[in-house]
């Protein structure tokens, strides 16, 4: 039986200075990434936050929460909320059809879902206006029954629905696709019909993805500019979205006002990001502990 | 007798029908409208609009911006993906979240940030101006703002892909004596090429189509600092609808090409495009 | 090539994987690291290879301290459990890889590389499969290619991480025989990790039994069977 060997040659004792990763390139690639991230992303963001802080709390509140700003926030947030909710419903439906069913034209439908992602926002903006203005295909028809879409908050919602759709569909699709059939089959053997199975078994499973998609669509809608400014009325206090207010103030050289409102929007963006990460982190934990 | 885990046929048909109708109304209709309006006065009006000097200048500026923003972000995206997916280090998740930041910032806010840095009252503006370097309301600002907005796309595409592909092949290459760059070039790159292509395409589409951020920093000088999307706005505000839609249709065509290539890649190489593709 | 493992300790975030492990491996011997999952055997193998760094301790090859040497410079061959073949290269390109990435004067000429690849293909009994891609091969064939690839650079040490773990029983037995033959023919020092007692005892000259980051016993299979050193070893080999 052999025990731990005695060494024939003495070896100097040394403490590891630093654990090296065997995979090379960490220093270089991490350095590049942090440099680029710092210069391009963090520095500019810091500029907004620092400049807005330099206004002092009272002045900041005056500017960031002026009546006109509040009206703009209300429009942007409520419209984005409504659009995200609509997308939540129809996006889930579309994801379901794409994952579960086979039908002619499925590939085309799937490609269409990505269009808002690839189409420039200004192009979307003028196209939507052309359709929903009272001279347009849909707008003309709706005007006959007294419904106006273009140049009203409804138009803003329509534009936000357009750009938010892919976020919901593409977030739900992989989750739906990965769901095993066995829980549905189990529910069926226990007597549940399809609607019940969807409501009580499947919907809870896809809820985190649905919430994430909702949050992404909402965040995108709040900050959206190009698709919305053509179809919105852009009247202060009535149909002016928050990003437009920022642009208007910049054009009038009101840097303080623009910065303050931008800071508010940034905070909302970060909160949404944190919420999304929170959802995903809880989802990961939930899955790994198997509860 | 249908399967227990699927809906009755009429329900399926209804759901598919609703899905199609919704897509047709919300997505397809606007797409059609772009081309319908662009050609509403015939081919010659369409071609006319595009050869105007201002239109042509906007096309060149858009191409220039993309030619700078896309390669830079691709290189940094690959570097970030290599660091994050092939190594373990503290703060990795934080880094991923930071990379996502431009994605969640409003484009107008993005433009404003750079005004605060490079504008006449900005942190660096006066210093640069006194050395004859003009950034704001000129081409450099447009390029910088576009680069910011398109920063995450390649990284976001590659990180999950490279993570899912694991490290075994790279480790094998190391045991065979390959250095870091050799490993990346011979082993990693061939495995990610379709995901990379898709990320580059998306970056390009967004770079050429960016509106909000560029609008804030551009200064809107006709023939000089207008990209294609800005020029579309200019034409539209002048009620020159046909010309506006003509330029817009070029961008829409680009979007269609991007989507077409993506569909092609997914059809042939689904398992190499994304982490969930297998 | 003798291998000396001296007081290797490795801790991961929450658990201690190796706890002052020491081992002396003779030149040309075939050693099995045997133990249940979580015993630290793969970690030890990867530290020997240079794919992980130990928190304390040393590795010596033929008396030379290689602890701080990079994996590329250790002249080892490594066979992974799931082959880790380069999926976008042909079998021949896979095997040639270690030679094609050599720099400058050390790099052999194309003809020499091709000849070496064919030599190795013959050695692992896959003479005609050079132009195939890994996805076109069976599991057993892929592992043979992985072996050939690891041997291309004429390493002094061959390390194998549960090389037959992903294969079915019949293929496993065939490859066992092939592996031992190649080891004897080429004259390597080989270390392989396994949790399969039968495999370890059939193949190895000496077996090191690990549990919870410590070596319970290190001896010939016969000795381990007849004189188990600890209750753990006793339960493990019966």
Q: Overview of this structure, please?
A:
The complex is a heterotrimer of chains A (291), B (278) and C (238). Chain A has 291 residues and is mainly alpha-helical. Chain A is built from 13 helices and no strands. Chain A has helices at 26-53, 57-64, 67-100, 106-113, 115-118, 121-132, 137-144, 153-178, 182-189, 194-223, 226-229, 242-251, 255-289. The longest helix of chain A has 35 residues, at 255-289. Chain A is globular. The two termini of chain A are 48 Å apart. Mean pLDDT of chain A is 86; it is low at 1-18. Chain B is mainly alpha-helical. Helix content of chain B is 78%, strand content 0%. Chain B has 13 helices and no strands. Chain B has helices spanning 9-38, 43-51, 53-86, 92-104, 107-118, 125-130, 139-149, 152-165, 168-175, 180-209, 212-218, 228-237, 241-273. The two termini of chain B are 31 Å apart. With 238 residues, chain C is α/β, with parallel strands linked by helices. Chain C has helices at residues 41-49, 91-100, 110-123, 139-151, 169-186, 197-203, 221-226, 231-237; strands at 3-11, 16-25, 30-34, 56-61, 64-65, 76-79, 157-161, 189-194, 206-211, 214-219. In chain C, the strands form 2 sheets. A 6-stranded mixed β-sheet of chain C has the order 6-7-8-3-9-10, with helices on both faces. In chain C, a hairpin with a 2-residue loop joins strand 4 (56-61) and strand 5. In chain C, helix 2 packs across helix 3 (110-123). Chain C is globular, with a radius of gyration of 18 Å. In chain C, 47% of the residues are buried. The A-C interface holds A 1-2, 4-5, 7-9, 11, 15-16, 19-20, 22, 24 and C 4, 6, 22-24, 50-56, 58, 60, 63, 65, 70-71, 215, 217-219, 223, 227, 229.
Large-scale geometry of chain A: globular
Biggest pleated-sheet summary of chain B: none
Poorly predicted regions of chain B are none
Rg over C-alpha atoms of chain A, rounded to the nearest angstrom? 26 Å
Task: List SSEs of chain A in N-to-C order.
Answer: HHHHHHHHHHHHH
**What's the N-to-C terminus distance of chain B?**
31 Å
Largest interface: A-B, 93 and 99 residues
Which features does this protein show?
heterotrimer; A: mainly alpha; 13 helices; globular; disordered N terminus; C: about 240 residues; alpha/beta; 6-stranded mixed sheet; 4-stranded antiparallel sheet; 8 helices; 10 strands; about 35% helix; about 25% strand
């Amino acid at each position: 039986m052999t025990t731990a060997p005695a060494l024939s040659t003495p070896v100097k004792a040394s403490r590891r200075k630093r654990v090296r990763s065997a995979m090379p390139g960490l220093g270089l690639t991490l350095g590049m990434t942090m440099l680029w991230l710092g210069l391009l992303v963090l520095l500019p963001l810091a500029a907004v936050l620092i400049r807005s802080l330099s206004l002092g709390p009272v002045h900041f509140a005056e500017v960031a929460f002026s009546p006109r700003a509040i009206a703009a926030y209300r429009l942007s947030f409520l419209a984005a909320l409504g659009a995200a909710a609509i997308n939540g419903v129809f996006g889930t439906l579309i994801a379901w059809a794409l994952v579960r069913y086979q039908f002619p034209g499925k590939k085309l439908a799937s490609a269409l879902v990505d269009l808002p992602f690839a189409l420039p926002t200004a192009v979307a903006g003028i196209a939507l206006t052309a359709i929903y203005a009272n001279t347009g295909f849909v707008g003309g028809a709706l005007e006959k029954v007294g419904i106006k879409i273009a140049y009203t908050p409804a138009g803003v919602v329509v534009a936000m629905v357009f750009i938010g759709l892919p976020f919901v569909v593409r977030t739900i699709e992989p989750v739906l696709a990965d769901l095993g059939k066995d829980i549905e089959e189990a529910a069926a053997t226990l007597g549940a019909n399809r609607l019940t199975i969807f409501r009580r078994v499947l919907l809870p499973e896809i809820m985190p993805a649905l919430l994430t998609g909702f949050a992404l669509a909402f965040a995108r809608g709040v900050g959206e500019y190009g698709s919305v400014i053509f179809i919105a009325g852009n009247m202060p206090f009535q149909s002016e979205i928050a990003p437009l207010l920022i642009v208007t103030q910049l054009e009038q050289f009101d840097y303080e006002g623009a910065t303050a409102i931008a800071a508010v929007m940034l905070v909302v963006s970060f909160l949404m990001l944190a919420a999304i990460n929170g959802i995903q982190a809880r989802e990961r934990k939930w899955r790994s502990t198997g509860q | 007798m249908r399967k227990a885990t699927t809906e009755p046929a009429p329900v399926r048909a209804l759901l598919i029908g609703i899905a199609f109708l919704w897509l047709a109304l919300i997505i397809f209709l606007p797409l059609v409208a772009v081309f319908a309006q662009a050609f509403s006065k015939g081919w010659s009006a369409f071609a006319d609009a595009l050869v105007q000097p201002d239109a042509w200048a906007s096309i060149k500026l858009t191409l220039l911006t993309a030619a700078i923003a896309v390669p830079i972000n691709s290189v940094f995206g690959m570097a970030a993906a290599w660091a994050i997916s092939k190594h373990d280090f503290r703060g990795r998740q934080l880094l991923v979240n930071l990379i996502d930041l431009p994605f969640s910032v409003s484009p107008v806010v993005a433009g404003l940030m750079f005004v605060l840095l490079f504008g006449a009252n900005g942190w660096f503006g006066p210093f640069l101006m006194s050395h004859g370097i003009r950034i704001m309301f000129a081409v450099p600002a447009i390029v910088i703002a576009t680069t910011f907005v398109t920063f995450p796309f390649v990284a976001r595409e590659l990180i999950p892909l490279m993570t899912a592909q694991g490290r075994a092949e790279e480790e094998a290459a190391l045991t065979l004596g390959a250095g870091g760059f050799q490993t990346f070039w011979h082993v990693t790159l061939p495995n990610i090429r379709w995901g990379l292509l898709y990320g580059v395409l998306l970056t390009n589409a967004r770079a050429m189509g960016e509106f909000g951020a560029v609008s804030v920093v551009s200064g809107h000088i006709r023939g000089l600092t207008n990209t294609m999307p800005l020029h579309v706005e200019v034409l539209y505000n002048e009620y020159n609808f046909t010309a506006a839609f003509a330029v817009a249709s070029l961008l829409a065509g680009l979007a269609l090409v991007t989507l077409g290539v993506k569909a092609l890649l997914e059809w042939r190489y689904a398992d190499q495009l994304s982490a969930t593709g297998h | 090539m003798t291998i000396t493992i001296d007081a290797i300790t490795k801790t991961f975030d929450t658990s201690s994987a190796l706890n002052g492990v020491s081992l002396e491996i003779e030149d040309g011997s075939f050693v099995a690291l045997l133990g249940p999952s979580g015993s630290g055997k793969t970690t030890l193998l990867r530290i020997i290879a240079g794919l992980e760094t130990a928190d304390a301790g040393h590795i010596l090859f033929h008396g030379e301290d290689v602890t701080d040497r990079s994996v590329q410079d250790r002249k080892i061959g490594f066979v992974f459990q799931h082959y880790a073949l380069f999926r976008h290269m042909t079998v021949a390109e896979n095997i040639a890889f270690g030679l094609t990435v050599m720099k400058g004067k050390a790099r052999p000429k194309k003809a020499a590389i091709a000849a070496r690849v064919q030599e190795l293909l013959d050695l692992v009994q896959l003479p005609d499969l050079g132009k195939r891609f890994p996805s076109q091969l069976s599991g057993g064939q892929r592992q043979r290619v992985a072996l050939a690839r690891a041997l291309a650079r004429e390493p002094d040490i061959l390390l194998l991480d549960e090389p037959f773990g992903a294969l079915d029983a019949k293929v496993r037995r065939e490859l066992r025989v092939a592996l031992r033959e190649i080891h004897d023919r080429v004259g390597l020092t080989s270390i392989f990790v396994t949790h399969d007692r039968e495999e370890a005892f059939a193949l190895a000259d000496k077996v090191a039994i690990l549990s919870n980051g410590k070596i319970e016993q290190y001896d010939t299979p016969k000795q381990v069977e007849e004189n188990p050193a600890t209750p753990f070893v006793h339960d493990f080999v019966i």
